[in-house]
Automatic annotation (TrEMBL):
Pfam family, one: MatE
Any one GO molecular-function label of the UniProt entry: xenobiotic transmembrane transporter activity
GO biological process: response to antibiotic
Full protein name: Multidrug export protein MepA
Subcellular location: Cell membrane
Keyword Cell membrane in annotation: yes
Keywords from the named record: Antibiotic resistance, Cell membrane, Membrane, Transmembrane, Transmembrane helix, Transport
Family listed: Belongs to the multi antimicrobial extrusion (MATE) (TC 2.A.66.1) family. MepA subfamily.
InterPro entries recorded: MATE_fam, MATE_MepA-like, MATE_MepA_subfamily, MdtK-like
């Protein structure tokens, strides 16, 4: 069976087979909002660009919920298959499918009915309120199929079909670019057009990844298995670190938006938006590596092959170190050229963002280790350790830094917050990994 290669094939070959599609898929997924930003920033202006960033926490709620269930299910199904429990794996998938459908329909209703209230809650001022509200109300329509797209895409990986998620995401980015050009540039639909383009792009990806789930011969599919409410809490808890990551991303975006709005107004928010887009592109590469090795880790953990588990972790950490170093030099040395993609016509935004990029770049040197360590603990079912790492880098030290550092060193303190958070989290992560390694040796 295709999933057995996870326990027998050479780690380096598995790494390439599973991580490359995952990296490309994650980068393309992250590119959806970036594409909107490029079109809006160049054809509409800085307020539209700032509006998209205000929306980000809401998007993270949709994606975060999807990731909680998807990653939690992937890890649980992977361990069940590794232990030879196929019926249990099918029941987990069926439960995840039903649960994610119900909750995503709730997101649709809330987004449609309370888009303006959500916009105010996210920090939109009078200038940005209308655009933010339009985007939230529009993108909410697509929430159910977006959530299911992530679930099916992730489960395809653990049953040996990682390329399907990649194909779906490639199609989605082609659709998004094409529709952004038509809706924003040709038809002048502005922010509403950007939301429709992104939503339709995700739907196109859904129709690619859903196909195996409609085949009764597939290892898991939507027809077999039983809904088992007792597994909802375990899979949600196991994937909760992914939810913490989403909450962390939303928290970071919200707090940075509020801070920059106070210090530099709409131009400050637009400057942060450009750096956030660029950094998220790099971070998605690292998350792709983490997601790619997840089925390898979970299967071999269930199969009790700890040597393969450790070899996978070491290889992924080395690759992320190289990636982080390259990204550091790119952002530090070519920040102006990258920022110009989004804000070429506004010197205030350009100057703020270029200064910030040279500070923010240092975060890349360590964040790869933190992402890999968090993903490792999720894959082996140690959700608590994963949550500690995710919460440290994205919530705890962000809140502390952004409330203290600007009072000491001004606007530079906002930019320093993220590198400092990654550094502190790295120390915590190393301690947790070593502690887990010693515990495994004594078993």
């Amino acid at each position: 069976m295709s999933e057995n290669i996870l326990g027998t094939e050479k780690i380096s070959k598995l790494f390439i087979k599973f991580s490359i599609p995952a990296i490309i898929s994650m980068v393309i997924a992250g590119a959806q909002v970036i594409i909107d930003g490029i079109f809006l920033g160049n054809f509409i202006g800085e307020n539209a660009l700032a509006s998209i960033n205000i929306v980000q926490p809401f998007m993270e709620v949709i994606i975060g919920f999807s990731m909680i269930i998807s990653v939690g299910s992937l890890s649980s199904i992977g361990r069940s298959l590794g232990e030879g429990k196929r019926e249990e794996a099918q029941n987990i998938f069926k439960t995840a499918f039903v649960f994610i459908t119900i909750i995503s329909l709730g997101i649709l209703l809330v987004g449609r009915l309370f888009s303006e209230e959500i916009s105010v809650l996210l920090g939109a001022n009078k200038v940005l309120l209308e655009g933010v509200s339009i985007y939230i109300g529009t993108i909410s329509i697509f929430a159910p199929l977006m959530c299911l797209m992530f679930l099916f895409g992730f489960i395809n990986r653990v049953v040996g079909k990682p390329e399907l998620y990649l194909r779906g995401m490639i199609l989605s980015v082609v659709v998004n670019v094409s529709l952004d050009f038509i809706f924003i540039k040709q038809l002048s639909l502005g922010i509403r057009g950007a939301a429709f383009a992104t939503g339709i792009a995700y739907v196109s990806s859904f129709f690619v990844v859903v196909r195996p789930m409609l085949r009764k011969k597939n290892i898991v599919n939507i027809f077999r298995g039983q809904f088992d409410k007792s597994v909802i809490i375990p899979i949600s808890y196991n994937g909760s670190s992914e939810g913490v990551i989403a909450i962390a991303t939303a928290t970071t975006a919200y707090m940075f938006n509020v801070s920059f709005m106070k210090i530099a107004g709409e131009s400050g928010v637009a400057a942060f938006t450009t750096i956030n887009y660029i950094s998220q592109f790099g971070i998605h590469i690292m998350f792709g590596i983490s997601d790619g090795i997840a089925p390898i880790l979970s299967y071999n953990y269930g199969y009790k092959k700890h040597d393969r588990l450790n070899d996978t972790l070491k290889l992924a950490s080395k690759v992320n170190l190289v990636v982080g170093t390259v990204l550091f030099f790119i952002l530090f040395g070519f920040g102006k050229q990258l920022v110009s993609l989004f804000a070429s016509g506004n010197e205030d935004v350009l100057d703020l963002a270029v200064r910030g990029s040279k500070i923010y770049a240092f975060a890349f040197l360590l964040c790869g280790f933190n992402i890999i360590n968090s993903g490792y603990f999720t894959a082996i079912g140690s959700a608590t350790a994963s949550i500690i790492i995710s919460a440290s880098r994205g919530i705890v030290f962000i809140i502390l830094g952004i409330n203290i550092l600007p009072m000491i060193i001004g606007i530079n303190g906002v930019w320093v917050t993220v590198p400092l958070a990654e550094c502190m989290t790295f120390i915590i992560g190393i301690y947790l990994v070593k502690k887990n390694y010693l515990c495994e040796k004594t078993v």
